[in-house]
What we know:
The chain is of the alpha+beta class. Helices cover 30% and strands 34% of the residues. Strands 11, 31, 32, 33, 34 and 35 form a 6-stranded mixed β-sheet that branches. Strands 1-10-9-6-7 form a 5-stranded antiparallel β-sheet, with helices on one face. Strands 2-3-4-5-8 form a 5-stranded antiparallel β-sheet, with helices on one face. The chain is globular and about 85 Å long. Mean pLDDT is 81; it is low at 204-230, 232-237 and 281-288.
Amino acid sequence: MLRADIRRYPGDAPDAPRPVSRTRDIGADIFVSYQISGATTHLTEFLEKTADELITTNICERASFFSDFSFVLEKLNKTLWELSREYSLGELSMFLGGVVDDELYFSILGKPNVLLVKDGEISDIAEDMTSDEQEFSYVSNGSIPQSGAVFVSNTPLLDTLSEDDLTEVGAIHARKPEAVSMLFEREFSWVGCDIITIAPEKPRASTPVSEQGSVFSGSLDRVRCYASDAMTFLRDHPVVTRVSARIGETVDLRHPMIRRGIFGLGVVVSVTLLYLIISSLFVDSLSRTVPEEYREKLVTANILIEKAGKDIGNPELFHSHIAEAEDLIFEVREAQLFLNDVDTLLTNISVLKKEMNGIESFVLSEENLRHPFSSTDASLIGIFEENKRRYFLHENTLIGPQVSGAEIKNSPLPEGEIAVSASMIDDTLFILTETNRILRFQKGEYEYVNVAWQRTWQASRAVDTFNSNLYLLSDIEGETQIYRHRPSINGYASRDRVIDEEAPDFSLYDFAVDGGFYLLKDTLAIDRIVSVPEYARTSVVINDLPQGYERRDGSPAPRLFLAETPRYVYLLLNNAIWVFAPNSNRFQDITALSYLGQLEPVTGTIETLYVPTDGEILVGTKEGVYRIAFEVADGNLLVR
């Protein structure tokens, strides 16, 4: 079993951007280590957060480790590509390594220093992987022998340590970690660097397999190994020893006939050994021709991608070319070959799909952060604003009002209450809780809201407001209904049905009120209800929908949002904001929606939205609230 140790040596330049080195223990004898260096502090922090999120959410099982590890690299390459469009990545270098039992898998970006100490020799195992491209290269893997170690650093280690020093470190690391520490502290007292050491945790009984050299030397080594083992077995076996002694007593080995017989037997043995060598060479040669077949698949896939780019105005041809290209690329990826090329082609496909589907990416960065959260444990339920005073509702706490120049307050919900939904009327926030109660927050105080002619509020899972009325989406099993409660003297009146049907044959994810009602059905179809002259439900036609308009497995339930002065309809689906334009400015006349595009974060998970006005969105995550601006030009959605 391998382990990773991280040692940091600050040096004499405390203001210089520091490298970041981390190890994340996945469990089941799996861990992932990474190092980021050569970037600004903000970029390093962003990439650290991104790497942590991708590792912890995507790598979990031994059986799928390689594909999961490759997927993380693909996502990081996508993130870096998006960042490079707006920011300079400078001299960024990254190392990402994963360990399963005694096997190390790793990939690099830029030029990190990765050295293997093995059998008294030092080799730069990342030398052939370095590149000026700002993306991760292919994945390399191998085992680390008991007396060896891999060192990862942002500083060229051999410029400071001698080969003897590193050899010594590799030999004593498992047994004397304090000696390693003393050596590093002595040699790096003036250099600012991080060092990740990956080495066996304790001695193993088995002998590590040697690395393969050239085709011939590798085959010959294997034959020598087989022959040596066989000769040792025969020489030391007691039966063979007794038989040899008996033959020596009875047979004259110097007799010409006997010597010719032995020579003939030697020829047979030699031919057998030669057969083994030739067979091994043939197998190795065959294995070297197989990748050419896969290389041709990638060439064909690239041609199909170029055709898709030219046919982007023809959806049918575009999707046909892309599907065919993806089939070829996935074949190569399953064979674990040319992974760097595979990642590049998949990134190109992703770019084309975004262009085809009108997807605009945005970065959740320090520049557009409007309010950070100190704790990321509780989910963010909603963002609200009244007269430039903002509130942020978490499951157990209301933060706000946020006013420029004033201290922001925290107001914990009453004991035992957990918020599930909320809506604001003027300066009053109505909060629906898990206990199916309604809390009113006004002037810094909570109070429970009464409902007339009902013992309790009905079971509900979402609340909205309009014209002082409360609207609750029923959470009663088997019921599809929105209930309206009008204000009364001591609270709110008993419920009225909005959906005027006894047993609707659909269920709802969410709803939104703009004078009429948008109903988001479990099929992602959208219906409209208008209250003039009566509640009448009609289907809404959605035009120009792209592929992928479906809820992914395991993703949160989709939610609808409207601006305070609504023009567009916003749907939070699959961690992207889908934007639609109604066919009328009058809510009574809306019969269709047109798809404008999607806004998708490069990384991070959106928990809720608030749209103060069309063209500006406040995106809420567990880490904070970010401002995203957009515009619609010639029917296309663009991030500003």
